[in-house]
Amino acid sequence: MPAHDAGLHNNRQDRPISSTQSPMLSARNVVKSFGGFVALDKCTLDIAARSITGIIGPNGAGKSTLFNVFAGVTAPDSGTMSLGGRNIAGLRPDQLAGLGLVRTFQISRELGELTVIENMLLASPTQSGDAVWRLLFNPGRVRTEQSAAIAKARALLEQVGLWQLANEPAKNLSGGQKKLLEISRALMLDPGIILLDEPTAGVSPLMTKMLGETITRLRDQGLTFAIIEHDMDVIAELCDPIYVLAEGRTLMSGTFREVASNRDVMHAYLGKVA
Q: Domains in the chain, start-ordered, CATH in brackets?
């Protein structure tokens, strides 16, 4: 298997099978309130397999809440959610990761005192060495898994240009490098879809370009992305389709040209940015 495909290899047979004929990830009439504030108000959208779907909207539109609901961080009050046709309501983040859904965060959550390679290895789903009895009675299995995890981590770091920093404390990385580490760490879980929350926030133009190229390459290899992003240049370059959220609802979806020319969108969002 080529090194650049190492992060996409998937041996799990219990995951929902997606197809280009049906959405990979869906929300139907999802409602989520916090006290008297309605963050999501019958929000409905579809994320097509092997797409880079953009989700935009003004602050308070419900974008991060939608990701939190999809990722199992918080439960919806009502509505349905499905991954590859499978109901995922009520599943925990670790259960969703086992089904191939992983998210990243606007503020990178690397473990700064650990090295880059250690951050990667912590995300490995095969950790038999965590059980003392396996370490004592089946050390061969533990060594084999560790060697495989290191090889996989190296392949993933090489494809984003971070392998030369493998032994560097993660806190020393630049903002863009930390975002690349987050994506690479997510790939250790063999995801089918990654939810990216503002991947280019606080990132230099050069690293923004590298992040965009990495996301596009991974999409071409079969991954699906949903991206929350405020940088309209990034949205225009990467995303199709684009969903616009306003006041917790899906205002519209379409291409960037369609979204940017819509009067309601201009009033709710783009006009404010301009």
A: 3-9+21-111+176-273 (3.40.50.300)
